[in-house]
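SAMPLE LOG
Freezer: B-3
Tube label: C17
Construct: single chain, 141 aa
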Amino acid sequence: MKLTDLDFSGGDNSWFDLWHTHVDWDGNGNRNWEARLPYLNDLVVKYNKLKIELKHSPKDYQLWILIDEQDSAEDALYIHTRNPNANNFPAVVDNILAEIKNKNLKDFIDSLNMTVIQVDTLEGKLFYLYDEKVGVPLTKE
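STRUCTURE (predicted):
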């Protein structure tokens, strides 16, 4: 699905239940940093496009980037709203201070000036990135 196919009208069918898209389906960015960087940049470009589209949304929403420290194929862009599937809005992630060991990834994330939340999993660390001035935050207030 293309970003231009998404419905931001606020109508009955305009909702997102943890909708997301990946940009590196094959995990090519796992080879090295030079291979991963274009995919991360693509996520940021798409995030910024969605930020503009959602700016006029009549519905509350959440918008974030998820970066998997270990697996570029898992990096994704998310939109979430109230939806008929579940009473799961807003999504809330415990705010843990991010400790990013990969210097290239840390420098990239720091350059975005976004709020970063770290979640530790059995497979490694996940980083949730979002702009606190856009939509509903991922953390409890």
